[in-house]
Recover the amino acids of this structure.
């Protein structure tokens, strides 16, 4: 085989099974500088945790703040003190208490998505449930009118998702920008009890957010929250498919669902890696960084580190403690974690009540997300027996 083809195959293989590579790297090269790119990768739990949380040594800022990415100026890409100011604007809407109030509505959305497919005894788990659920929930939180929901999903698919929306990235950005400026004008004139109205009214040092910053927030919530939650749900089904007795057990003991979700987050982390850039010279796992050096913290590897998790390669829904890093660590810890956990719990509760059994359709081809950051599948055909 040609070396380049070999590399392409390696990276495809690594997208859906990076775990043997992580294991080798934790053992043989826990802090590895790629000679071609100069990027420093760390693989062990303690080093990943440090890179994620030591914001003085490892910055989250991205280089170019170009217009194509409203995200470059957003919460996830900022350091203190700006980070704290931006985060303060949205924490209230995302506390566990605020999120818990959404439960009845989220359950209703899950039922609306499941009702039409139950009779068939089969569904594409991603297209029919895992993909639409988080988009509908965040659209409702933001205050997007129901009549615009279909459009909104198309834009968000084109901008962030790997499913084909039939729209180009640029067209979607343009249409969404037009839509948001209309909505912002409406809510400025007549505020409601929704996240957009709340953000419009918010001030940092007496200054309101600009329209671009407001849009940046909305896009961040889409980018950070949708595909990740979709993949958490899909990855749960992949885990259950490998051990059918787990699904049986969850049907009998639904109170284990929250800890099963934590184990899916650890074992098949939807976000496998995060970027930082070194601010100066610092020792990370025995390597002295240079200022500006890109650093990759391999969350997916930290979560399989035997030094932290006994029998790390075993999927165990009763694992305790389970201090995985799937939602990050420190000041950037995932804002949407309570929401993702709630959506996953309610979805798995609905499935275990409504379906006796869930199986992947044997031999039905599965397409993996080809990325070293996002881990999940684009489609997941399953059969089930309604209970
Ligand atoms: C299973 C689903 C999810 C996973 C695995 C996940 C993972 C993560 C991770 C690893 C980070 C840390 C990034 C860093 O350290 O640089 C993060 C941050 C963030 N997440 Fe999530 N996320 C999920 C769902 C959500 C949802 C549903 C939302 C919102 C609707 C959301 C919004 C955010 C935001 C705004 C940040 C940036 C926080 C900050 O920089 O202070 N995420 N997420």
């Amino acid at each position: 085989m040609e070396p380049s083809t070999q590399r392409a195959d390696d990276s495809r293989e690594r997208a859906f099974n990076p775990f043997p590579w992580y294991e080798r790297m934790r053992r043989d090269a826990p802090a590895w500088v790629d000679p071609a790119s100069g990027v420093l990768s760390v693989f062990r739990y303690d080093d990943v945790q440090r890179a994620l949380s030591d914001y003085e040594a490892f910055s989250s800022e991205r280089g170019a703040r170009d217009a194509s990415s409203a995200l470059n100026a957003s919460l996830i890409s900022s350091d203190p003190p700006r980070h704290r100011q931006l985060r303060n604007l949205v924490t209230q809407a995302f506390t566990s208490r605020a999120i818990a109030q959404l439960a009845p509505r989220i359950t209703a959305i899950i039922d609306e998505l499941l009702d039409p497919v139950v009779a068939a005894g089969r569904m594409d788990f991603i297209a029919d449930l895992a993909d639409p659920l988080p988009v509908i929930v965040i659209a409702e939180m933001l205050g997007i009118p129901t009549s615009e929901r279909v459009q909104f999903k198309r834009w968000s698919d084109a901008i962030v998702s790997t499913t084909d929306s039939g729209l180009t990235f640029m067209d979607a950005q343009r249409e969404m920008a037009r839509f948001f400026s209309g909505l912002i004008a409406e809510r400025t004139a007549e505020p409601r009890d929704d996240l957009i109205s709340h953000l419009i009214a918010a001030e940092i040092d007496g200054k309101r957010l600009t329209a671009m910053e407001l849009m940046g927030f909305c896009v961040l919530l889409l980018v950070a929250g949708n595909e990740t939650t979709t993949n958490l749900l899909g990855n749960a089904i992949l885990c259950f498919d490998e051990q059918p007795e787990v699904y049986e057990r969850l049907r009998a003991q639904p109170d284990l669902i929250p800890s099963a979700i934590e184990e899916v987050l650890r074992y098949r982390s939807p976000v496998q890696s995060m970027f930082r850039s070194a601010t100066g010279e610092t020792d990370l796992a025995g390597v002295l960084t240079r200022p500006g050096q890109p650093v990759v913290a391999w969350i997916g590897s930290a979560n399989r580190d035997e030094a932290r998790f006994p029998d790390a390669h075993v999927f165990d829904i009763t694992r305790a403690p389970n201090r995985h890093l799937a939602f990050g660590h420190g000041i950037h810890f995932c804002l949407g974690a309570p929401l993702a956990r709630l959506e996953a719990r309610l979805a798995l509760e609905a499935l275990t009540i409504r379906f006796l059994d869930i199986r992947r359709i044997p031999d039905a081809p599965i397409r993996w997300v080809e990325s070293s950051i996002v881990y999940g599948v684009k489609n997941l055909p399953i059969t089930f027996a309604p209970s």
